[in-house]
Specification:
This protein has a single domain, classed as Zn peptidases (Aminopeptidase), CATH 3.40.630.10. An 8-stranded mixed beta sheet has the order 1-2-4-3-5-10-6-9, sandwiched between helices. A two-stranded antiparallel sheet has the order 7-8. The chain is built from 9 helices and 10 strands. Helix 4 packs across helix 9 (about 285-305). By secondary structure, it is of the alpha/beta class. Strand 3 (about 80-85), helix 4 (about 90-105) and strand 4 form a beta-alpha-beta unit. Helix content is about 30%, strand content about 20%. The termini are far apart. The longest helix is centred in the C-terminal third of the chain and has 21 residues, at about 285-305. It has helices spanning about 20-25, 35, 40-45, 90-105, 125-130, 150-160, 180-190, 215-225, 285-305; strands spanning about 50-60, 60-70, 80-85, 115-120, 165-175, 205-210, 240, 245, 250-255, 270-275. InterPro entries: Peptidase_M14. This is Peptidase M14 domain-containing protein. GO terms for molecular function: metallocarboxypeptidase activity; zinc ion binding.
Length: about 300
Amino acid sequence: MMTAATYPIGLPGTPWGEAELDTWRQHRIRLRNYAEDVVPRIDALSAQFDVVTYGELNYSDDSYRLFALRSRDWNPTLPVALVTGGVHGYETSGVTGALAFLETQAAKYAGRVNLIVAPCVSPWGYERVNRWNYDALDPNRNFRADGPAPESAALIQLLSPLHGQVLMHIDLHETTDSDESEFRPALAARDGKDYEPGEIPDGFYLVDDSDNPQPEFQQAIVTAVEAVTHIAPPDAHGNIIGSPLVAHGVIEYPVAKYAMCTGITGAPYTTTTEVYPDSPRASPKECSDAQVAAVCAAIDYVLTQI
């Protein structure tokens, strides 16, 4: 386990400068290929959905087009349901789950809801299995109008015409062992702060918005996912990742304060999923299936509230 004192980049207690950032970038090796893994699946869906290119990232020698898929027969009288995945590129089932939902389940909602899905918000992070973007920024803490992360800014721009029209937004994530072995120590090192070890929960959980809690919505999702994979129990202090458990499988964050993805549309029903792919009790397919179950349960619930 790394600590801020032993993280191989930077000096303890000193925030990174450009030299440390350059060193960090040099060690981020491409481990998978967005153009081969993700884009062909999006292209294959173009017969059923309108594919929108909503931005392009240009990082050194790498460029990535950002894609969203929209219901082909968009009806302005219907509610809008938004699904986002891959905000943290390393969280694989967020990407695969969003795509699998479109491939296997989205058709049953035709004529009932307008769908918009951004399956891989951070392709540079996807390729390098990393939480951050090229600039060592966390996209899911930079969803604000003046934010420095281009992945976040592009999604905000795409969705700005829909502000106030989105009924539900579900953002698909994972909590992994690498959060403690790499990403939280890296964050402490980057910011020149002390690293305090945490505990990785074994199982699925949700993050509700503490400023707009929707407990029945969250529990409908947890109940559906529980048929697919196990739900994370709290630790000995009654917490999950340092936050008090407010209900079975649910914690809360101040979404707007943290500039998280689920705060960008003003949707009344929002949640962030967290799947645990490193559990000995789960498989990659199970994690992806859990994300699909969460999306379906979220849409099913909000349709009953109309």
